[in-house]
Amino acid sequence: MGTSASKSTDGGSHGGEGLEEENLDHAGGQLYISLKMENYKLKGELIPHVYGSVPIVGSWDSSKALSMERESASMWELSFVVPPNHETLDFKFLLKPKYNSSPCVVEEGPNRQLIGGTLQGDARLAIFRLNNDEVLEYRVFILADRVSPFDLAASWRAYQENLRPSSVRGIPDVSIDSVPGRGAENGSAATLELDLEHYVVPAPSTSANSGLVYAANMTETPRSLTHSGVFSNSDGSGNVSNSFKDGGGISGDRPATIKEPQFLLYAAASVIKLDLLVDFELGNRHMEMEIVVPDPVKMYSSAGMVESKSVGTFSPLQKQDGHRGLFVDRGVGSPRLVKSSSSSTFAVDLKLDTETKNSMPEASGAVAAAAVADQMLGPKEDRHLAIVLVGLPARGKTFTAAKLTRYLRWLGHETKHFNVGKYRRLKHGANQTADFFRADNPEGIEARNEVAALAFDDMVSWMQEGGQVGIFDATNSTKKRRNMLMKMAEGKCKIIFLETICNDERIIERNIRLKIQQSPDYAEQPDFEAGLEDFKTRLANYGKVYEPVEEGSYIKMIDMVSGHGGQIQVNNISGYLPGRIVFFLVNTHLTPRPILLTRHGESKDNVRGRIGGDTVLRMHDYDNRYESTETLFYSDKGEIYAKKLSNFVEKRLKSERAASIWTSTLQRTILTASHLGGFPKIQWRALDEIYAGVCDGMTYEEIKKNMPEEYEARKKDKLRYRYPRGESYLDVIQRLEPVIIELERQRAPVVVISHQAVLRALYSYFADRPLKEIPHIEIPLHTIIEIQMGVSGVQEKRYKLMD
User: Going by DSSP bridges, is the β-strand pair 305-306/289-294 parallel, antiparallel, or unpaired?
Assistant: First the structure.
């Protein structure tokens, strides 16, 4: 005969006599039982049932037996939660006819008894003898586990949400309204003033207004020059420079002396200790710092379970047999990693130096997986990537470099933008005429090569300190210059040339005029036409010696900036990150268009302080049968905002019929967009709110009270914290990458109606905010953030429609 099984909480199974006592009673939570029966020769008219003591049925009356649900063609299942005071169960299986009132068939043998999740007595098949002496045999599986009250509550909330009819059911994922939606009546509380400027509010100091600043001035500060005593004005002009020596003074309101820092690096038995002794005298103040960096090999030397709420990129796990494993922990509070006792689990000896660990991206998902693969399989120099711009002036190199830098930083890669023009202005001043750039001016060539080498050295030094991607922004228009850079990069980083070619004279003329208006090179030139003539002469000097890229790995962008076609050519490009760069560049362009970001209207869960969920904006969006329940705590403000948003978009985008509306798949965003008519509406699953897992539907006070460890873990590091069975901000960023790519590709305005965490991540991309700041960015309700993308960069404007 067969055996029945009772599955223990650690994933093993057992059956028959001599079962070990499970410590389920002490595991916490409530007992979850799943009963399953399997038979490959099922009779379709007989349905398996269960009856017995509390809490299964509470009656041995076969007419009250509970029906099992079909799980597959051969499997039936019934699951339930056992109250703490009823953990001893007596039950039996029976078969009931489906279509008639014939007597049911009860399994043969004694009652089955389950105590604390453990099956008592002999394990056996369920045997049924029919009237014609035919015997049916079913294999029996009994699975037991402890479930926390929070998991149960989350499951019940999910069940209730799924049971309640959705207010947006029937609305397709993509819809195009041919007529305006249900707008507010004239004179109603939801109408707006005609002048939209009335609703403008100040943007934060860290807003996305890069378009107001010359892009080259926002690049990396040249430390090789500042270390040697050259300082620049805040505008990057470099016309005023100060120098100092040891013990010398720096001119200013408050004199200070800086002594050369002393570095002492030595290894201790259990830690690597770095003493940084800095004597910084400001007035009569002195400061000393000591930095102790623990040795990760020693930190994680214990065997068995590794329980870590730290968020370091790598945590080497030291095994007793000398093998070392790799643990990428991307979520504080996430399920813990249990190290297998098998030596084959960690069979690769990964000697991770400090440079390797520092060069990993701050990311999860595909980015983290690709980075791990590159670290383990790729050559050492490929761990650092140098994107070297190539092209004549006024071809959009600096603009492209700035956008690429912002994108890679947002993905989690440590990226910096090194602009050689900024070095030149600091070293040789900003007032250089076109003669400085002549090909027959040896002094000019030597000076320009010198600052290019300084910038490249700075970039390589930064990479050796943990930087991952350096973007080297200069004309680099000759093979001789590019060969110099490739020689400097040997054994240190991988170079990919990025050449920008533009043959559209209108775009070139526009870029030249922007250059004269914004570049520090012409800040002191009062005559615009004189500056324009000088720059065109400089451009002609470069053009005489320009040599297109034909060597090494390269990407050529030919007439791509307009967004109207063009070509992109790649040569010898491989790997995850270079591939992502190519994909990004294919979809980017300079066409001006606004992107409007806004949260959904206030929902009932916003009022109650509950996170997650899929609630609506107002009471009458619910089915009437729920109107008497306390779950109908709702917000009229959300409904009013939906109407005001419709009025705003109609006024702001009245001439932009190609605009589109993007929402998440959750009801509160779809209903917020319900009054917007005449625009295509697209639902994105990627725009759904950060998933709070078992905490979905709870308040932060409830989490703090019932799950204090999770509450503290989230408070400690909101960026990397992953809700149990949920998501972290890093997870959200990874799923939003297709949204960013599509926003870059769009040529018409887009209105994005989403949620706070998602909009924080999207906004941080446009504002180029550090990843660590994302969880703390303020995205208020009932406010529209307008991001204007165009040739001059990114600009931001905010409209607050209501409190």
Answer: unpaired
